[in-house]
Amino acid sequence: MSDCIFCKIAAGQLPSGKVYEDDDVLAFHDIHPFARVHFLIIPKAHIAALSDCLPEHQALLGKMLLLAPRLAKEQGLDTGFKTLINTGRGGGQEVFHIHVHVFGGGDPARKS
Ligand code: 5GP
Ligand code: ZN
Hints:
Layout: H1 5-10, E1 18-21, E2 25-29, E3 37-43, H2 58-74, E4 82-84, E5 100-104
Antiparallel strand pairs: 1-2, 2-3, 3-5, 4-5
Guanosine-5'-monophosphate binds at residues 5, 16, 28-32, 86, 92-95.
């Protein structure tokens, strides 16, 4: 998807605060965090939304979800975290490349 911002991030064509990368997925800090820790987990392959996923994406979706607790802990969210997948315009999705929000640790505007 040549005009997809997350495809460009996945391809290394745009900078991101990388949290994790392997052959299939990338995790990076959200540019407008709504918690002290807020990162996104995306597949490198373009899938627009959760509602576009097919049975063949089952392992990839599982991989993304299983990464969430591991990366959250590495980012210092020792006591828990929230996950969010906005789907479709009615679901508040703004970037149409599927992503899992992982966040926690309170308001980023606060010092603690
Ligand atoms: P959505 O509303 O689609 O679930 O969330 C999209 C998220 O992507 C938003 O939280 C937004 O701050 C984040 N975002 C949008 N553009 C960029 C970008 O260029 N870089 C990074 N790191 N995050 C982005
Ligand atoms: Zn994309």
